[in-house]
Structures are given as structure tokens and as C-alpha cells.
Amino acid sequence: MNGWTKKMLRVDLSDGSTSIEEIDEEILQKYLGGRGLGAYLVYTEVPPDTDPLGPDNILAFCNGAMTGVAVPTGGRSSLSTLSPLTGTIFDANTGSQFGVRLKWAGFDALVIKGISPTPVWLEISDSGAEIHPADELWGKEIPGTVAALKERGTATVSIGPAGENKVLFASIADEKGRSYGRGGVGAVMGSKNLKAILARGKQKPGIADQDIFKFVNYEAGKMVTASPRTSEGLPEFGTSVLVNLMSWYGVFPSRNFQRGKFENAEKISGERLRDEYLIKRGACWSCPIGCKRVTKTKTGKGEGPEYETIYALGSSLDIDDFDTIIDANYLCNRLGMDTISCGATIACAMELKERGKLDTELAFGRADLLLKTVEDIACRRGLGDEIAEGSKRLSARYDMPEVSMQVKGLEFPAYDPRGMQGQGLLYATSNRGACHLRGNMLGPELLGAPKMLDRHAPSGKAGILIVMQHTNAVIDSIGMCKFVNFAIGDDFFARLMTSVTGVKYETQDLQLAGERIWNLERLYNLRAGFTREDDNLPPRFTEEPLKEGSSAGHVVHLDEMLEEYYRFRSWSEDGVPSQKKLKALGLDTLEMEQADA
Fold first, then answer.
1. With a threshold of 0.90, does the pTM exceed it?
2. Would you tell me the crossing angle of helices 588-596 and 507-527 to the nearest 10 degrees?
3. Beta bridge partners of 8
4. Where do the CATH 1.10.599.10 domains begin and end in the chain?
């Protein structure tokens, strides 16, 4: 086939066996690859009662048809698993070259299960997988691990000490800090005694219709160049451009979402990052946008921080010392931790301290303790051992669950939903927990893309959110970046898929595939015991109005939006997909097979 390779590489670390198998063409066409293929593999192979850190959980690295194809942002890949942090089906996505090289080695997917009796690393090539001892690598930070393997190849992802110690928000990253970041995927890898994976490949995917592909790809590139967001805003400032804007809107969280505005936002803004810390821009493979920042402080150098990290390690902790925030970002990248959950859980601990529940020096504004706290978490020392479990578990331990800013166990990103009603609905309904990357309402509610909506109005949000959730599932599955969606839409994704794979896709076919993927993830979570009660927000957002800023006086009107959302999705009042909907999506047979298993 073109675009897809139709091959899956399987590795069982318990007995050291490896195999290559064919992927059913129908599965690829229905689920597109990437996140969709990963959801199918987790759904069919990992029962929800599986121990996420046990041998039966899988790491499913999955590529899309566009992964490794020279389209704008065609360097993305997904990783799917059962999350140890949330207990939900989970996928993480990155622009690391690892996915590209895995694809060029001839594989749409790499599926790893089992637990090695000793530390190992994997080497992937077009002939399959080799398992190597990793005793000398164990304990190293991610850059050191990657450097040690560099002469064998450059496309390597690794865990750091956080993954080895099974921190529940540990990540998997390359030497530049580009990560399969959220949900504790690094803890799953660490539980398998797997330190690193290196991929080597030069076999680029075939193109079904070169002439049409060249034309459509050229037109897509022109639109990316023409869009001010993808040709000016993101290249100039990166995602950190949002700091001042979100603070002005009153949705930039500080002090663990006790406030929606940070008084010293300009001290940690994208403008200051550019003017005082930026060395050069960076980009993922085949990306014309270049939103990455290579920066330098007095003591360190690396990529980032992104907007979400500036909130999590900065404003949410009431810290405006930009050098410390940036150094903490570098440290998280080296140790292998999701910066969002790391910072948000530290903020939870700070509020527990503020409320007299926790006896610690750690408190809002204590920039001097941030780097030590990050190290303590990765090494599970002292209070760091408790923080390593995530904010949901930490707050429950001290009988104050309301100070954990999470949905389904996943900590909030950097937008206060009290100033963005649709964003609140997104967080509540996201299949992997509080996540802005499942259909970010930033565009329609604050940026006017594709059109401007009243951000404080709850009515009319469900329909556009559902479409965006489906589109985001498609982008994650075909192997492109969500930022390209600022410039091109479903019509271009359909035309690219058709020209590359030779399979005829219309816009409605991709929307249907996105809906299929979303409902499959929902079915898994229902089997895992999640209910309508989990499509909720912390009471801070539904009961406590913001007190200052341009979103003052507002709360999230979730129940009203959720009722409309379920109705539009053809789900029951309890959030269960109807049999009619499952049949229309071709999921009814699959659901029955799993029920019988």
C-alpha cells in the first residue's frame, strides 16, 4: 500500500520474542493510523482491569499515513496505552523524528508488552527489533541516554529517572525534549524495564498519485504561508505568545486556578522569551511553521518552554522568576516528566499547604524550592514521592479533593474555563481527561478561528466542539500537527489522504472516522467504569466565580452544555452511545466481541 506500510512490529519483553505481522487494510482505512489505530489496539488487546504497570499493558507506537511524508507537519506520531495516572485509554503525540524513522523502517506500528527481567533498550530497523542490555544506561537522564546511543542512530526516545521510578506523569522524550508527554506513558515504559528505543529506516512511504499529491501539497503549503497564525504568530513567538493575551482575557490561571489573571504576566511572556532568552527557532520534521524555541538561561540551554509549561511551572505556582521557570522546564525534559501535571500537582500541594493540610516549606511564590522539588518528584524523595502520584491522589490523601484541578485524573492545561464555556465542556468530555488538545475552543472562543463565538455563552457550543473533537482525532491519526489546522481544513486532509494512500476520502469520510475513534475511546472508558459523573469539572469552576479580570463573575454552566452534547452525539442521558450510533459507525460488532471476551 501507499502511505501505510500495513506492517506491525511486536515485541514481548518477558520472553524476548519479536514478530512482524500484517495489519488488516480495513482497519487502517477505518481508523486511519496513529491515534485511531492505537485506540483499536488498546481496545482489543488490553482489558480495562489490566494493571497499567503490569506485563499485559501495551505501548502501541502508531504512525499515520502522513507520518514521514513531506507534507506540512507530516512528522507526528502517536503512542497509545492504558494510563496509570487516569485509568483511561490514553494516547500521547509528538513531533520527534522517532516516529518518522519507525515509519521509514517499514512499520505503521510498534507494539510492546511484557516486562524484561533486566533493563534493556530496543533497536528497530527494517529487519525487525533487537533487544540490547541497558544496565549502563539505567539511571541516566534522557540527553545522556540518547548521547550514548547516538553512533547507532539519531532517532531515539528514552525515559529518564522519573520513568524508571514510575512517576505517574513520567514522559518519554528525545534529546530535544520533544515528548510523548502526558498520562504517565513513561511510567509504563519504565515498568517494562525498557530504557530507550532507537529507530533506523530510509524506506520512505509510497505516494499513490504523485501529480495530484504535488498539486494538493503545494496548495496546502501556500495556505500555511498565507495564514498569519502559522506564518507570523507561531514562528515569531511560539506558543508562549498566548501568555499576555490569555491574561488579558482573564483566563490565565494563577495560584492553582484561584485566580484567572497573573499580575506579572509580562515577566513570563512570549515577548520577553524572544527578547531575552531565545537563541533560535526550531521545528519538527517537515514543519514549515517552526513554533519551537531554543533558549538559554544563565545556567542552562534547551527547548522551550511552551505556553502550557509557563503556566504550570510559573503562574500556577505564583512564580514570576523566568530563569527558574525555564530551568525547571529543562530539568523536567531531562528527567522525563510532563511539565503540565508536574506543575499542576505542585500547585495542588501549595494550596494544601495554604489551607493547613500539609506541613511543608513548599508554598506559592517559592521559586527557590522549585528545582529541588522537581528533582525530588523524579527521585520519589520525601514529599516528592507523594506529588509523583498526581494531584487527584495527593488531594485525596489529605481529604481535600476539591483542590485538585483535574478531570478523570488528568491535570488542567492553561485556560480557565470560567472565561471559555466551550473549553469547560471540552475538558469535561475529553476521553483522556482535562485536555486542550482534544478540540481546543481557543480558536472560536478567543481567536475568531474559524469564527468568533461568545465565549461566555453556553448555548451552541456542543455542536462546534463535537466537530472539532472529530477533526482533532483525524489529525492525530493521519500523522500531522494540529497547528496546521489554523491554515488548512478537512478538505485538504481528505485530498492529501486520497493522493497519498489511493483510498478515496471525502471530508465526511474523515469526520466519520473521527467520530468512530471518539466513540471507541468512549466505549473503552465505559468498560473501565467511567460514567456521566466523570464528565465533570472541579467545583471551583462551576461554583466559584472569578473575582477579578475580564472574566470576573463567571462560572461554567456545564450541565446545560452536557445535556446538549449528549443529545447531539446520540448518546443516552448517562452518556452511553446508542446501538444505532454504534451500528452507523461500524462499532456494534466490535463491542459485542469485546463483551463476549
1. yes
2. 20
3. 21, 109
4. 417-486+506-596
3-state SS string over 510-529? Answer: HHHHHHHHHHHHHHHHHHCC
For 194, the 3-state DSSP assignment is: strand
CB 326 within 8 A of CB 298: no
Residues 6+ apart with CB under 8 A from 97: 75, 154, 155, 174, 285
pLDDT digits (tens, 9 = 90+) for 294-341: 999 999 999 999 999 999 999 999 999 999 999 999 999 999 999 999
Q: Which of 180, 181, 64, 196 is nearest to 120 (CA)?
A: 196
- 131 DSSP β-pair partners: 122
Give the pLDDT confidence score for residue 597 in this predicted structure: 66
- C-alpha span between 478 and 73 (Å, rounded): 11
Mean pLDDT of 179-207: 97
Position 540 scores a pLDDT of 98
Write the single-letter amino acid at 370: L
Which pLDDT value is given to residue 264? 96
Q: Are 228 and 483 in contact (CB under 8 A)?
A: no
Are residues 432 and 534 in contact, defined by beta-carbon separation less than 8 angstroms?
Answer: no
Answer yes or no: are the C-beta atoms of 9 and 128 closer than 8 Å.
yes
Residue 593 has pLDDT above 90, yes or no: no
The three cell numbers of residue 110 are 510498534
Cell, residue 12: 514481548
- Cβ–Cβ under 8 Å, residues 207 and 69: yes
- The separation between CA 493 and the C-alpha centre of its own chain, rounded to angstroms, equals 21
The ranges of the chain annotated as CATH 1.10.569.10 are: 242-411
Provide the pLDDT for residue 338.
Answer: 98
Distance, in Å, from the CA atom of 152 to the CA atom of 198, rounded to the nearest integer, reads: 8
Q: Which of 246, 477, 409, 254 is nearest to 347 (CA)?
A: 254
Torsion of CA 548, 553, 555, 557, to 10 degrees: -150
Name which CATH class applies to 242-411.
mainly alpha
Q: Identity (one letter) of the amino acid at 7?
A: K
Which pLDDT does position 497 carry in this prediction? 98
Set of cell numbers at residue 578: 446508542
Report the top-level CATH class of 417-486+506-596: mainly alpha
Q: Phi first, then psi: what are they for 295, rounded to 5°?
A: -125, 170
Q: Is the pLDDT of residue 594 over 80?
A: no
Q: What is the CA radius of gyration of the chain?
A: 22
Residues 6+ apart with CB under 8 A from 341: 85, 169, 182, 312, 390, 391, 410, 411
7-199 under CATH 3.30.300.30, yes or no = no
The b/e string for 513-547 (b: 16+ C-beta within 10 A; e otherwise) is: bbbbbbbbbbbbbbbbebeeebbbbbebbbeeebe
pLDDT value at 591 more than 90: no
Is the omega angle on the peptide bond into residue 305 within 30 degrees of 0, that is, cis? yes
What DSSP state is assigned to residue 487?
T
CA 156 – CA 108 distance, rounded (Å): 17
Q: For the residues 229-234, what does the mean pLDDT come to? A: 93
